[in-house]
Amino acid sequence: MIRFNNDYNRGAFDCILKALADTNTTSYPGYGEDEWCDKAEQIIKGLIGRDDSMIKFIPGATQANYVVVAAALSPVQSVIAADTGHINCHEAASIENTGHKILALPNTDGKISAAQIEACAAEYYDNAKPEYLTEPKMVYISFPTEQGTLYTKRELCDISAVCKKYGMYLFVDGARMGYGLGSDKNDLTLCDFAMLSDVFYIGGTKCGALFGEALVINAEDIKYRFKAYMKQNGAVLAKGWLMGLQFATMLENGDYFEKTKRADELAMQIKEAFEQKKVPFWVESFTNQQFVILSDEQKKTLAEKYYFEEMEREKEGTVVRFCTSWATKQEEVDALVLDISKLV
Amino acid sequence: MIRFNNDYNRGAFDCILKALADTNTTSYPGYGEDEWCDKAEQIIKGLIGRDDSMIKFIPGATQANYVVVAAALSPVQSVIAADTGHINCHEAASIENTGHKILALPNTDGKISAAQIEACAAEYYDNAKPEYLTEPKMVYISFPTEQGTLYTKRELCDISAVCKKYGMYLFVDGARMGYGLGSDKNDLTLCDFAMLSDVFYIGGTKCGALFGEALVINAEDIKYRFKAYMKQNGAVLAKGWLMGLQFATMLENGDYFEKTKRADELAMQIKEAFEQKKVPFWVESFTNQQFVILSDEQKKTLAEKYYFEEMEREKEGTVVRFCTSWATKQEEVDALVLDISKLV
Amino acid sequence: MIRFNNDYNRGAFDCILKALADTNTTSYPGYGEDEWCDKAEQIIKGLIGRDDSMIKFIPGATQANYVVVAAALSPVQSVIAADTGHINCHEAASIENTGHKILALPNTDGKISAAQIEACAAEYYDNAKPEYLTEPKMVYISFPTEQGTLYTKRELCDISAVCKKYGMYLFVDGARMGYGLGSDKNDLTLCDFAMLSDVFYIGGTKCGALFGEALVINAEDIKYRFKAYMKQNGAVLAKGWLMGLQFATMLENGDYFEKTKRADELAMQIKEAFEQKKVPFWVESFTNQQFVILSDEQKKTLAEKYYFEEMEREKEGTVVRFCTSWATKQEEVDALVLDISKLV
Amino acid sequence: MIRFNNDYNRGAFDCILKALADTNTTSYPGYGEDEWCDKAEQIIKGLIGRDDSMIKFIPGATQANYVVVAAALSPVQSVIAADTGHINCHEAASIENTGHKILALPNTDGKISAAQIEACAAEYYDNAKPEYLTEPKMVYISFPTEQGTLYTKRELCDISAVCKKYGMYLFVDGARMGYGLGSDKNDLTLCDFAMLSDVFYIGGTKCGALFGEALVINAEDIKYRFKAYMKQNGAVLAKGWLMGLQFATMLENGDYFEKTKRADELAMQIKEAFEQKKVPFWVESFTNQQFVILSDEQKKTLAEKYYFEEMEREKEGTVVRFCTSWATKQEEVDALVLDISKLV
C-alpha cells in the first residue's frame, strides 16, 4: 500500500535526522532559549525581510492557532474565518474553548474575500459597536487553504487593507506554507506575508519536520508576554532546541522549499492523470492536495493499492483527497498515474 | 561548563535516535493510531499489570497536567495540590486558565499528607456541600515531588483511601517517574500506581526521550472522549508514532529504568560530597535532584564550571539545585565531587 | 411618544408591586431558600404537571441561557441552534465565552426543523464520533422565536425525538413564554414543554415581572450541583425571595397568562392594520412581536409618535418590529392602528 | 425569631418601594440607557468628586467582582487577594472560572498589607517576569472586609502606592460600603476611593436596595468595551432603570448613608453587651458585623430567639456572626442586648 492520504505520514528530511544525531550528546538551555532557536530565528528573519518580528516555535498547528487567538483577543472579541477553516471544523472547537466566537463566512474553494470580510466587520464597526455583539478583531485564513487553493497577492493585499481599515489582525495559518510557496500558480513570498499579515506561521509538521511550526509575529500587541500564553497552554517544549535545530537545518539547506515544491510537481502529474481520465474535480488545486470525485468502482479499485482520504459523499460519488508530500517518490506517483489511466 | 541545571538538557537515548533513523522512511497513520503506539501501549499495560487502562501519549507535561484536569473536572470542581505542586507554581496558571481552582495545601518537603487532604475535602463534603464552594474532586501529587522527595507506599495508600472515601480522583504527575522508581529509598512500583491512582503518567521528556509523556488512565469516567480533550488542547501530535516509538523502545530495552536509576546513583555521590563538606541541605532527597544551600562564595566557585539552578534566596545563602540525568556521565560527577570537596 | 419598541419597557404587574410592598418589612432567608420560592416552585410544578423537576429562579435570560449550557455541557460538547437564536446573535458570545461552540443552522422564520437537527447530529454521531469535532449535545430553540413565530406540538415532538435518538438535551428558551402560550395559533402547553424538553424556562422579565426567569430542569444530569453553577456565574440573587414572590403572585392570580394573551390580541389588531394597508410583512407572526417592512416615508411618519425597533435594511425598505406587551393599552394600539391606516 | 444572620434579609428602603410604585407605568429605554441611570450616575459623580469615572449598575456582587476581573485581566494575569477575600472563598471559584488565578495572601483580621502585596508582586516583577508565573495585575480588597474590619486611609494609600509602582489595578469590593463609611472608626470617603482605586463599588444589595451594585470605574483601560463584558456575563439587566432609580433615590435622600450608619451604631450596642459579658471576640469590628465565640450553651440559648450565622468551630466554642442592617430596629437590638446580659 502506498500512502497518499496526507502529508504527515513519514518522519523527516534526512538532514534533520542527521542534525539530531550530531547534537544528541550536546547539552542545551531549555524552553527555546538556545543557540539553535537563535539561529533559526535569524534565518527566518532573513527570509521574511523583517528584523523586528518575534519568532516562536510551537510543537503543533492546533496549538499554534489557538495560542495566537488566546494571546491576541480579549473575551469580547471574535475571529472571522472561512466555514471550511481548519480552526472552524478540524480542531475540536479549540478556539471556542478559549472563549472566542468564530464568525464563519461561506467559502469559495476554501477562500473568503475581502468584500465578505468587510461586510462582516461593518455590521459591528459601522453600526455603533453594539455591546450584544462580539468585536471582530482577527481574520484567519489558511495558505494554502484546506482545499489546496491559494490566495493571490492581490487578494491578500485586499484582505490586509480591510483588516487595517477596521483595526483587525490578519492571521495566516501556514501549516502547508512550503506547498503554497512552491506552487507554479503562487505569486506570494514570505516577505509578502511578513508585510501583509500580523502573524503567520511557516509550517514544519506537514513540510518535512518531525514536528513544529515557526510562528512569525509582526504585530507589537501580540508579542507582549506571548511566551506566557505559550507556557500556559503547554506550547513551550522543554527541549525547545529540537525545533530550532529542525527549522535552521531545513531552511538553511533549502530542503524546506525544494522538496515541497517537488511535491507540488508530483501532485500536478496526478492532477493531469485525473484530467486525462475526465474524473471530475471537487475543486481545482495547484498544490500538493488534489480533490477528485470518484465513482464507487473507481474508489474501490484505487483503494486496493493506495491510501487516500475520503472527504464526503456527494451525489456523483465520493470526494477524496490524494496528497503528495516532501517524501513522496516519483515511482509512487508513476504507479498511481498508471492506475488512474486504467480506471473505468 | 557542565550542565547540572536540569534533566532535560540533552537529546535522547541512543536507542531512540536509532529507532527514528530506522523508521524514517516508513509511512504511518497519523494522530497516534499507529502500530508503534499500539506496541508501546501493550508494553505499558504489561508493566503496570492492568489491561483495562487507557494509554495516551502527550508531547509535554504541562499539557498532560491540564488536559487531564480539563477532562476530569466540571467547572464547579477543583483540584487539591501541594502549594509547591508543579501545576500551582510552574505552569503559568494553566489549571486556572481551564477554569479550575487549585486548593493549595502547605507542603512538607514537597509532599502533602492524607490527613491534610482529608481535612480539606471534609470542609466541603462533610459540611452540606455548599454551593459557594467548589467541589474538591481531584488530588494532584508529584512522584517524585518538585523537591526530589518520594511518597512511600504507605502514604500513597492512605491518600488513595481518602480519595476513595470522598469520590475524588487521584492524579500522579510522573514527569520524573524513572528517577522515582530508581531510587534506593523507593518502595512503589508502576503496578502500585496503576492500582492506587485514577490517572498517572510515565514521564518521557525528563527521563531520556526527546519529548512525550505516557498517560495511564485508570478511571472509567476520565476515559470518555479523552482524545477529544487532547485534540481541543492541541495535544494530539500529527506524527503520533514518534511518541509510541520512543516509549516502546526505551521501555522495552530497559534504558528508561536503568539509566534513570544510574542518574539517582550519581546524585547520591553528589549528595555524599555535600554531606562530607557539611553544606546544609534544603531538603533531603534520594533522587536525581539535590537541593543545597550555598554561601555566596561557594556558589561563585561552583558557577565557574557548572550550570545549576538557583531556587531562592534564604538567610543562610542561596538554595540551588544540582540535577543529574540519564545522560550525566561519571566523569562529570567526579569533577563536581572533587570541586565540592575543595569548597571553603 | 408611545413605546412599541420592546416588551420590557415598563415596571411590573400591579399585583407584584403590591406584594413587594406587603412583604417589605418581613425578613427572609437568602439565596432562594425561602418560602416564596417554595411556593412558586409548587405552583409551577402544578402548572407543568411534573413533581420531579427542579425549579430555579435566575435574574436574567442571558444568564439563564449560558448557565444552563455551562452546567449541561462538557468542554468538548456543543449546542445546536438557529442562526437567529438569541444565544447566537444577541448575547455577546456568552456561550463561546463559557467554552462551547454553537452549531448554527439556517433558520426558516426563526425556526429550525427536526430534519436539520438530525442531519447536523448525524455528521458526528453516525460518523465515528471523530475527536476533531465537538459532540453536539444540546439543541436550543426559542418559544416564541426571536421572530415571533411558534413551534407546533408536532414540530416540538419531532425535535424531541431526534434529541432522544442521539442523547442530546433539548433546551427551550421561554423568555417570551407567556406570549407564546397566549397566541391563538399555539397548540403547546407548559405540560408539553415539561414532557418534551430537558430544560426550559418561563420568562418573567418580558412577561410582566420586574426581572427573573423560572428555570424548569427536567433532566437528572443537569440538576446535579446546578446551584453551584448559578453561584459561580453570579446568578444566585441574595434576596432570592424577590423572584419567588413575583412568580408565585403572577402565576397564581393568572396575570402572567391573561395579560400576555391580551398583548397578543392587541398585536393582532396591529397586524390587521398593516395587512389592510398592504404593508409587507418580513415574517408572519401570531404573537406580540410584529415585523413589517416600511418604506422610508412610512418609517418617518410612524417614528414621529412611536418607538419601534429597526432590525435591518432590505431592498424594499426597513424591517422594523412593533412589540406589544402585558402593559400595552388598547388606546395606544388604537392610536397606532389609526396612524397605520393613514399611511401612504 | 429575629434575624441577625445577615444584612440582606429584608426588602428595601421605603423610598425605593415608593419610587418603584410611582414609576411603574412609565416606559423606559432598556439596558441601563435611561434617565434614572443617568441621574444616579450624576449623583455618584458628585459624591465621588470625579466626573471622568464610568458608572455601571450590576445586579449582584459576585457578578460585579468577576466581570471586573474578566474585563481587566488577560488570561496570563492574576489577582492578589486576602485568603478570606469574598472572591476567594464565597463565590464558587467564579474568578478561576473566568480563567484567572487568585494569589491568596494570609489575612490579618480580614486585611492584607501593602508590604505583603509588595512582596508578592516583587516575586514576579522584580524577578525577570518569568513566563511560568502569572502576572499579578490586580489587587482586590474589601471595604469593610468580610470580618467587618476597615482599612485606614493610611493603609489604603500605601496599598495604592504599591499598585501604582507595579502597574497593578486596585479593586475595592464595596458590597458593604455604607456600613464602612458609617463607622465611627472610619477615616475614608467616597472621594478617597475614587482617587486611590482603579475600580470600586457602592454596594446596594446589602445596604438597603432590593438589589444592585454601583460600579465606579476610574482606570481608562477597564472602561473600554466594559458593557460588552457585562452583557457577555449576563450582567446587563433588561429593565436597567430599576437600579438607576434605586441608587438615585437612596443616595439623594441620604438613606444610604444614614441608615447604614445607624446599623453600625446598633452593632456597637451589641458589641458592648458582649464585652460586658466578657464573651470573647473572634475579631474586633466597628461595623455592622460582630463576630464572637460562644460556648455551646450560650449558642443554644441565643438560637432560641435569634438567627445568626455560624462561621466555624474553634476549641473555645463556635465563631458566630451577629449582623445588623439598615432595617434592624432598636427594639430588636434591645431584646438581644438583654438576652446577652443574661447569658451564663
Automatic annotation (TrEMBL), chains A, B, C, D:
Residue ranges of every copy of the Aromatic amino acid beta-eliminating lyase/threonine aldolase domain listed in the record: 31-295
Gene Ontology biological-process entries: amino acid metabolic process
UniProt KW Transferase keyword: yes
Source organism, top-level taxon: Bacteria
Known cofactor(s): pyridoxal 5'-phosphate
Keywords tagged on the record: Aminotransferase, Pyridoxal phosphate, Transferase
Alphabetical list of InterPro entries matching this protein: ArAA_b-elim_lyase/Thr_aldolase (IPR001597), PyrdxlP-dep_Trfase (IPR015424), PyrdxlP-dep_Trfase_major (IPR015421), PyrdxlP-dep_Trfase_small (IPR015422)
A Pfam family: Beta_elim_lyase
MF (Gene Ontology): lyase activity; transaminase activity
Keyword Transferase: yes
Protein family membership: Belongs to the threonine aldolase family.
Descriptive protein name: Aminotransferase class I/II-fold pyridoxal phosphate-dependent enzyme
Organism: Agathobacter rectalis
